[in-house]
Design goal:
With 275 residues, chain A is mostly helical. Chain A has helices spanning 2-34, 37-40, 55-62, 66-97, 103-114, 118-132, 138-142, 149-160, 164-172, 177-188, 190-206, 209-214, 223-234, 239-259, 261-271. Chain B has helices at 2-39, 57-64, 66-100, 105-120, 123-133, 140-147, 162-187, 191-199, 205-233, 237-243, 254-264, 268-299. The longest helix of chain B is centred in the N-terminal third of the chain and has 38 residues, at 2-39. Classes of the chains: A mainly alpha (275), B mainly alpha (300). Chains A and B meet through α1, α4, α5, α6 and α10 of A and α1, α3, α4, α5 and α6 of B.
């Protein structure tokens, strides 16, 4: 009895200490975002601000481009997700529920595409976009991510578990295959779609690599790209507003995670299969 | 005649459904891979009117020059630190939280949420926060060190330290993800096995862990290690935000080198060779991962 109490105490101590380390940058970011200027530049350790200072957030939201970064992030992430679903869902349905020549070949391509990390394709895509002249546009930020082997794979797994009688019945009722995809198959696939959406939105909201390459115009900066512009310009004086900006940019996904933890954990864990 | 038109209509439907996705895959994945492989044998520069075939010269430059070797060895060191530590910590946290579920479910739940936070948070913004945490004079780490009588360090600009600092941030980000995968593995262990172990006298502490938990977690552990490795190989955000590969290339990694050579110096040929080497590392890992996933399915 005493032994198990001691072992519980030790493991709790270890777990809480670990959690404190995990929280450290979050707390420090929040603390600096709410600290008055003189407390930021003080050499004493003060984890918490002496009073809550909202002006850093006011500066970040009114005097900087942070709202624009959020908007760009929203456009890019929503655009990518919409096109990914538009292309992936019909293809997955065909792979799972139809028999056609070349089906195994197409599925083989999907599996092969899963092996290719985005970084590998960046140079040729950049060259192509430069040639066509669409660098520095929303299109350049969205287009390369339209093909999603992971999405096709995920939706195909889901569709192949649905009974084919269901689709036969719809055909008897005179629905076209396109109507079956969007009016029957896709609504049924909402659990898969949610997991995929969480994975895709998180990956692209947080991505820095491609926005850094494809855009040089600060007005097109996505949140991570934007926060770097902000940091490089402020040169150390405006730590408070910079941290407030970082909080604002991190907040949407963190809040979504806190509100829908189970779905988030599943969606992001499923992404691990993609590698 | 009528039959033929039906099969033809069916074929058109298949093309309409599967064609567009296949086309964009070819256009944005397979074609670029082929081009990058070809470019890696040339001296092409962005914007140059022509290029020459130079065989394996880009590769010998990557493996032969100090800078190229530095990028490769830094990446390998980073991966070699992040894998064991983040997998080990992820396992320890998962075991602790799994046990805690029995007597303090709310605390276990709360801690699990905290550990997972870095996975959802924007890494670039968090790197900016880490920069302030590790700030030489204003950061909480050095302030604490100074208060305890230690020596403050230049965590991000000391050549000997910077790679380890980045690895620590990588571990900070990966532990929660690994914990979730391990928790899923722990839940899947049938409780009868623990009862049987108890009967055999291995019901407590370490003997219970070594006879039941660890063997049952074997496939999960391998899977977690490979996932961690593939993520660690891609380390870019923290490098680009915090060090830009510096000081003096002490934290240069493969993906950052590919970015710098390709998109700052516009040496497309050389950057393509770096890309191919990076790709080769990841291909080996991903193929290993596929085999493990397959094995896991057979295991059940």
């Amino acid at each position: 009895m005493i032994r198990s109490f001691i072992s519980r105490a030790w493991s709790t101590l270890f777990l809480v200490a670990g959690a404190a380390v995990i929280l450290l940058p979050f707390l420090w970011m929040l603390s600096l975002a709410f600290k008055p200027r003189d407390e930021i530049f003080s050499a004493d350790i003060q984890l918490l601000p002496s009073r809550i200072e909202w002006s850093n957030f006011v500066v970040a939201l009114t005097e900087t481009d942070v709202p624009l970064f959020l908007w760009n992030g929203f456009v890019v992430v929503a655009g990518i997700l919409a096109f990914q679903i538009l292309f992936a869902v019909p293809c997955s349905y065909a792979l799972a529920q139809r028999r056609f020549k070349g089906r195994t070949f197409v599925f083989g391509m999907v599996l092969a595409a899963l092996l290719v990390p985005f970084h590998v394709t960046a140079i040729p895509i950049f060259l192509g976009f430069a040639k066509v002249g669409i660098l520095n546009s929303y299109g350049a930020l969205i287009l390369p991510f339209v093909p999603t082997a992971f999405g096709i794979f995920l939706f195909r797994q889901f569709f192949s578990q649905l009974p084919s009688d269901l689709f036969d019945a719809a055909r008897v009722d005179g629905l076209s295959e396109t109507a079956i995809v969007w009016r029957i198959a896709f609504p049924l696939a909402m659990p898969a779609a949610t997991a995929f959406a969480i994975f895709s939105v998180t990956a692209h909201w947080n991505d820095l690599f491609w926005p850094l390459i494809a855009t040089t115009d600060p007005h097109l900066a996505t949140p991570p790209r934007g926060i770097l512009y902000f940091r490089d310009e402020e040169s150390g004086d405006d730590v408070g507003p910079l941290m407030a900006g970082a909080v604002i940019i991190t907040a949407p996904l963190v809040l979504a995670f806190l509100l829908a933890q189970r779905k988030f954990t599943q969606g992001l864990a499923a992404g691990g299969l993609k590698g | 005649m009528r039959r033929l038109s039906i099969t033809r209509r069916e074929a058109l439907t298949d093309l309409w459904l599967a064609g567009p996705a296949t086309l964009v895959m070819v256009l944005f994945i397979f074609l670029p891979v082929a081009i990058v492989a070809v470019l890696s044998f040339t001296d092409y520069q962005f914007g140059a009117p022509s290029f020459a075939w130079i065989g394996l010269e880009n590769y010998s430059k990557l493996f032969g020059s100090t800078l190229g070797r530095r990028a490769i060895s830094n990446t390998l060191i980073y991966v070699a630190i992040v894998i064991p530590v983040s997998v080990g910590l992820g396992l320890a946290v998962a075991l602790g939280l799994h046990r805690m579920m029995a007597w303090a479910p709310w605390l276990s739940q709360l801690l699990r949420t905290i550990y997972f936070l870095p996975v959802a948070a924007t890494l670039v913004a968090m790197s900016v926060a880490w920069q302030m945490v590790l700030h030489p004079s204003l950061g909480v780490v050095n302030q604490t060190l100074a208060a305890l009588g230690g020596t403050p360090q230049d965590w991000l600009s000391d050549r000997g330290l910077v790679l380890y600092t980045l690895a620590a941030i990588g571990i900070w980000q990966a532990v929660g993800y690994n914990m979730v995968l391990f928790l899923a593995g722990l839940v899947a262990i049938p409780p009868e096995l623990y009862d049987a172990a108890e009967v055999d006298g291995a019901g407590h502490g370490w003997s219970r862990f070594w006879t039941v938990t660890w063997p049952m977690l074997g496939p999960t552990t391998l899977f977690v290690m490979v996932v961690t490795a593939t993520n660690a190989f891609r380390v870019f955000e923290t490098v680009a935000t915090l060090t830009r590969g510096g000081p003096a290339f002490a934290s240069d990694t493969l993906v950052y080198a590919l970015y710098r050579e390709g998109f700052i110096y516009f040496k497309a040929g050389y950057a393509s060779a770096i890309t191919m080497v990076f790709f080769a590392f990841l291909l080996i890992l991903t193929l290993a991962q596929f085999r493990i996933v397959e094995k896991k399915v057979h295991y059940r």
